[in-house]
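Hey, sorry to bother you again with one of my protein questions. A protein chain has come my way and I'm curious about its shape. It would help a lot if you went through both lines with me. I owe you a coffee for this, so here goes:
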Amino acid sequence: MSLEFQDSLVETLKLLRASFELSHFMVVADEKDLISAVLKQWCDISDPCDPPDIIFTSGGTGFSPRDVTPEATKEILEKEAPALSTAITVGSLKIINTAMLSRAVSGIRKNT
């Protein structure tokens, strides 16, 4: 994935008018076990005094056989936050109608 794509994601997040620091960025293949492992590592092995507040994933939420990000995410969550996913979808629908095809998943693991 290009630095251009990373910059595009960061710019999109800035539209939320939130102050943040990008601490990690990783491209992961569409493989359920690999996605789950990276999410676990970032939530569990991060500095216990300063875990990441939030992790965003992009892609892999469609309907093709390789779209497994929601399933990988659900696997590692301790608590789901379905209303957060709904709010993201509602906001996305204001921008593009194909957002209705997303299978977004939100939740909490440890302090992330």
In short: Strands lie at 79-80, 107-108. The chain has four helices and two strands.
